[in-house]
Recover the amino acids of this structure.
């Protein structure tokens, strides 16, 4: 074969190779286009309105995160750790914010911005937007769990949450007596961590020792080997082995709990307020009778002891700005619109996600749609956020491993073993 | 194309000594063709090394560090400590046991079922194409989709398995063994067709004369299988077993969807995922991955030793 043809073939081959290598490149969509990573659909509707209202000052390139909180965290972690400049505004599940902030992945809000984005925010969502006395996430919406019950079973159960706070023991005994279920989340995922944290906090304890957020991982101390830890374990085990536990309790997430509550022998359930809107959908679809909601009542999250307050779980979503974004000032401007009372009202109406701003709960439309609005607002003020830790991934992983399955837990041994596991994992001495 | 002399030619030059190797002078045409080959294949070769070799070497390097992605300043060289920690942790051995259990059970069942299906496909006289297509459908379904389908099937609230077996609200995913059973069923359903496809290829290579001769000699059906079919399918069986064993040993997606690792159903791939992706402990996760890779290589090596089959002969590369 002539040399010229060989050379031509080689040049063609190298050109194709170079083209393949550079083919992944792409523009950022224009200097006023903000890349916005959303966690749910309603965020897109609000973003489109904000972009239209900005008069061309900014536009959004919307990217959807995975459905689960853990999945969203993993994707953001990978991108931010790679210093991906294509991220501007990211939706961060509050427990993971400290991890991102500690790693230098997020831009800290200035004092003036912190003041602006804190004003009128309920206590639970506000607390979980701060890390080492700085704000890293603007609360977009909050969340808390309530106790939901079927009014028709109360008399037989001999317990009335509407008359005053109830304990987990009362509920377990009442549900057993009435032959109905008490649905909760026993699945080994973040929902189990939510439950453990609420129980431990209500019993007067905490998962991590005070000041844990400021020490290296191998110096973090757990506080589960305590009376509070034992009280939490006892309740989890008692419920899991009682006749009140729905079938498949140890693998039940939020939607499984709702299914158990909606079933014929449903009695009580702890769950997020989204279920209220979900009941409507089920009624529209015909899987629930039209008068189902007439039989549904709600009350404050159950407590561990009659004399101690409950510690309702805290959830929600915050908006953070990537430390690697080239448009940080524009992102702040966009967040101003994304988190307004009007936007938060829209989230609440469309997805049932409670607003983080207290004033939204006074809106007549909200009060009509959510007759339990006061209960949600109180819950978010009394809520106990999950531990704020730069190593939250390990903390929740250890808790999920140490407290699962709930029917195998033992108040005598689980608190000590779970605490040891937590500290060993944080010190890189054990696997989870 | 050969660039060395044959052993026979070498022995003529030096009959009493070890055969000598002598370079053959290439013609211009041969040299041009060789250069062209390198030029055309070179970029692909570089890409292949970049996408496989570099990550492997990087994983080995990273496994020597205590390195958390969210704590880059705390990165510290710790030598082989990660390996020591992993190999002395009970969780690793527990998950090694679960992985081995799933591998042995699924591959054994798949071999028997796969062989039966291969015989059906091979011997079918009517509707051969639709039959083969029907048998191969599960393999065409994405593992995640099939895992979801089986997770719903085994669900205690809306699954069809419980009503079919009259098990009420039995929670398959509430216990280790029942959950592993469900995982194995999903895995077997999904990959038996692959096994049968490989075995079918082996069956098709057996000359009909052998079977005819055995029949004439009075061999019964089972004897024909044992004495003629299986020995002649040795290479195909080894390839099928090897591929499926390596695949099963790295099982991840089915378990991720069906149990998310709960009830002690985590495997070694899951362990690597949890350390690397969930915990972002890059050093520790890399060490688990390296161990997993070594185990996979060991399995392949053992298969080649046990079966004593030279695969290159089956391709006709050597005479």
């Amino acid at each position: 074969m002539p040399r010229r043809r060989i050379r031509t073939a080689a040049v063609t081959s190298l050109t194709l190779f170079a083209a393949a290598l550079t083919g992944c490149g792409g523009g950022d969509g224009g200097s006023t286009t903000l890349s916005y990573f959303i966690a749910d659909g309603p965020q897109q509707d609000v973003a489109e309105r904000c972009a239209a209202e900005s008069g061309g000052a900014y536009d959004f390139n919307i990217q959807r995160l995975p459905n689960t909180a853990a999945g969203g965290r993993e994707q953001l972690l990978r991108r931010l750790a790679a210093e991906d400049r294509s991220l501007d505004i990211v939706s961060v599940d509050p427990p993971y914010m400290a991890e991102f902030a500690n790693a230098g992945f997020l831009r800290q809000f200035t004092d003036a911005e912190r003041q602006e984005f804190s004003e009128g925010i309920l206590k639970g969502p506000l607390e979980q937007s701060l890390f080492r006395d700085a704000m890293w996430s603007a609360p977009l919406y909050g969340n808390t769990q309530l106790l939901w019950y079927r009014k028709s079973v109360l008399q037989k159960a001999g317990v009335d949450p509407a008359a005053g706070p109830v304990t987990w023991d009362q509920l377990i005994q009442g549900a057993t007596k009435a032959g109905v279920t008490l649905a909760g989340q026993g699945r080994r995922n973040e929902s189990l961590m939510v439950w453990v944290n609420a129980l431990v906090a209500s019993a007067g304890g905490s998962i991590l020792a005070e000041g844990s957020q400021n020490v290296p991982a191998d110096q973090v101390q757990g506080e589960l080997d305590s009376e509070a830890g034992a009280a939490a374990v006892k309740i989890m085990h008692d419920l899991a082995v009682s006749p009140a536990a729905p079938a498949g309790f140890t693998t039940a997430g939020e939607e499984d709990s709702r299914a158990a509550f909606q079933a014929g022998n449903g009695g009580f359930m702890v769950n997020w307020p989204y279920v209220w809107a979900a009941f409507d959908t089920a009624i529209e679809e015909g899987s629930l009778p039209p008068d189902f909601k007439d039989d549904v009542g709600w009350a404050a999250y159950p407590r561990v002891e009659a004399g101690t307050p409950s510690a309702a779980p805290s959830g929600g979503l915050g908006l953070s700005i990537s430390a690697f974004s080239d448009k940080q000032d524009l992102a702040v401007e966009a967040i101003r619109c994304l988190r307004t009372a009007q936007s938060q009202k829209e989230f609440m109406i469309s997805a049932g996600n409670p607003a983080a701003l207290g004033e939204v709960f006074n809106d007549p439309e909200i009060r009509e749609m959510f007759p339990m609005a006061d209960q949600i607002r109180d819950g978010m003020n009394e809520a106990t956020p999950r531990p704020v830790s730069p190593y939250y991934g390990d903390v929740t992983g250890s808790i999920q491993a140490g407290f699962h399955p709930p029917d195998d837990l033992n108040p005598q041994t689980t608190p000590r073993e779970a605490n040891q596991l937590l500290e060993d994992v944080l010190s890189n001495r054990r696997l989870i | 194309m050969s660039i060395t002399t044959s052993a026979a030619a070498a022995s003529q030059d030096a009959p009493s000594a070890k055969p000598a190797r002598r370079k053959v002078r290439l013609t211009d045409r041969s040299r041009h063709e060789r250069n062209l080959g390198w030029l055309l294949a070179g970029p692909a070769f570089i890409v292949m090394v970049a996408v496989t070799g570099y990550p492997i070497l990087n994983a080995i390097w990273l496994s020597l560090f205590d390195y958390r992605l969210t704590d880059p300043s705390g990165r510290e060289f710790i030598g082989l400590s990660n390996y020591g920690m992993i190999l002395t942790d009970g969780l690793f051995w527990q998950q090694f046991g679960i992985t081995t259990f799933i591998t042995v059970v699924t591959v054994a069942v798949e071999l028997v079922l796969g062989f039966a299906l291969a015989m059906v496909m091979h011997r079918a006289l009517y509707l051969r194409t639709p039959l083969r297509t029907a048998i191969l459908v599960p393999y065409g379904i994405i593992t995640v989709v099939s895992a979801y389908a089986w997770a719903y099937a085994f669900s205690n609230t809306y699954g069809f398995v419980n009503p079919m077996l009259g098990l009420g609200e039995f929670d398959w995913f509430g216990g280790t063994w029942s959950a592993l059973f469900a995982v194995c069923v999903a895995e077997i359903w999904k990959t038996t067709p692959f096994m049968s496809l490989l075995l079918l290829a082996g069956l098709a290579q057996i000359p009909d004369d052998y079977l005819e001769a055995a029949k004439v000699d009075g061999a019964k059906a089972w004897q024909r299988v044992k004495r003629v079919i299986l020995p002649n399918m040795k290479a195909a069986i080894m390839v099928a077993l090897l591929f499926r064993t390596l695949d099963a040993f790295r099982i991840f997606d089915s378990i991720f969807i069906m149990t998310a690792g709960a009830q002690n159903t985590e495997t070694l791939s899951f362990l690597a995922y949890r350390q690397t992706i969930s915990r972002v402990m890059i050093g520790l996760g890399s060490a688990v991955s390296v161990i997993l890779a070594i185990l996979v290589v060991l399995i392949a090596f053992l298969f080649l030793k046990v079966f004593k089959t030279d695969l290159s002969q089956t391709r006709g590369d050597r005479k």
Notes: Chain A touches chain B at residues 1, 3, 6, 9-10, 13-14, 16-17, 20, 70, 74, 77, 81, 99-100, 102-105, 187-189, 216-217, 247-251, 256, 259, 390-391, 393-394, 397, 404-405, 428-432 (CB under 8 Å). Chain A is about 45% helix and 10% strand.
